[in-house]
Amino acid sequence: MKMSEDTRYLVSCLIIVVLGGCAVYFGLHIVFLEQNIYTQEVKFQALKEQTDGTLLDPTFGQVMTFLSEDNTDEHKYDVDNYNCVEFSNQLIFNATKAGLNAYYVSITYGVGEGGHAVVAFNTLDKGYIFVEPQSDTVLHLAVGREYDGKTIHFIKIANSP
Predict the structure, then answer these.
(1) pTM exceeding 0.90
(2) For residue 107, what are the domain limits?
(3) What tens digit of pLDDT does each residue of 69-120 get?
(4) By CB neighbour count within 10 A (0-12 exposed, 13-18 middle, 19+ buried), where does 57 fall?
(5) Domains in the chain: how many in total?
(6) Which CATH number characterizes residue 32's domain?
């Protein structure tokens, strides 16, 4: 079946609108994540300046000891007031106070699926490990893998404080 020129034009316009909307969505979502990461870097730079400026990259065992003593995971989740961003910020703040390097991590899922925030430690013996601050669970994250029932499309690790 042949399409008329008007139908082809309308279909082309619809495709452009849909693709443009996706580009805007991804652009805005990435800008939001980048702004959040920048905010965290500024906040934790100020905290680092309150210490002697020396933060350690820990061993895996040191991270596990720190997590067992930290109470961030005991907070109650509240989507409006204490969500994954606040959990991550608190864990990083506590790690920094304990003298450990910790990194804010933004995870981006597919279109319309949002994102998530977790924490990373660059351990001396196992490299980067990702931690879910709501449960102290060590995560195995990678682009293309699923986490929380969603496929990971992008992982951004912020600079250390």
Answers:
(1) no
(2) 5-157
(3) 999 999 999 988 899 999 999 999 999 999 999 999 999 998 888 899 999 9
(4) middle
(5) 1
(6) 3.30.460
